[in-house]
Amino acid sequence: GAGVSQSPSNKVTEKGKDVELRCDPISGHTALYWYRQSLGQGLEFLIYFQGNSAPDKSGLPSDRFSAERTGGSVSTLTIQRTQQEDSAVYLCATVRVPGELFFGEGSRLTVL
Amino acid sequence: AQSVTQPDIHITVSEGASLELRCNYSYGATPYLFWYVQSPGQGLQLLLKYFSGDTLVQGIKGFEAEFKRSQSSFNLRKPSVHWSDAAEYFCAVFRRGSQGNLIFGKGTKLSVKP
After folding, report:
1. What does the pLDDT look like over A64-104, one tens digit per residue?
2. Which residues 6-35 of chain A have a CB within 8 Å of chain B?
3. Interface membership of B59 toward A (CB under 8 Å)
4. What is the reported pLDDT for B95?
5. Which of A35, A83, A97, A106 shows its CA 20 to 30 Å from the CA of A65?
6. A9 contacts in B (CB within 8 Å)?
7. 3-state SS track over B43-95
8. Kind of pairing, strands A31-38 and A42-50?
9. What is the spatial distance between Cα A11 and Cα A13, in angstroms, rounded to a whole number?
10. How far out from the chain centre does Cα B54 lie?
């Protein structure tokens, strides 16, 4: 597609359930970021994938969070045993040149 | 640790007035610098970037920013604000040679009065 596509756009779940968020990157963009945006907190870096290199997972807030990128294309962010503080907008972005990100519109997660 | 500070959480300006949004960074060397804009209900979009060379960079929508090494600043400016500029603006720093951590400030929300 022409842009970064994220799904679902909205997800409401119950505390304790697992959720998966998907990101379809721009074709040919080899680098991919996940960020979390909470109200008043700006953008929090979660994880970065670059080609076949080991991902930079330094931003994942706990071991309940994981992400994978299959075949250098689609990425999924998984949150296990969701907590209310996980409620946020999760943003995916792919990279054309270092630092120049193309963002998806995000997946809004609400944990009840 | 590297950081990005946007000291103004919320700014209100009148339509047609000039605008300056502040950004300061903490980093040992000259980083790559960016401004992104997030309009209501939309994703983030790159406004402009600084990699090297001329310290005054032009971006889309009539915005410009000036890199000042002595002040570790990269302030965003626009001579005349339009109502459609109401949005949230994020300054970001990318560490040269790093594996990929692009650090964002907490953002400045811009409101425009008619």
Report:
1. 999 999 877 899 999 999 999 999 999 999 987 777 889 99
2. 31, 33, 35
3. no
4. 73
5. A97
6. none
7. CEEEEEEECCCCCEEECHHHCEEEEEHHHCEEEEEECCCCHHHCEEEEEEEEC
8. antiparallel
9. 6
10. 17
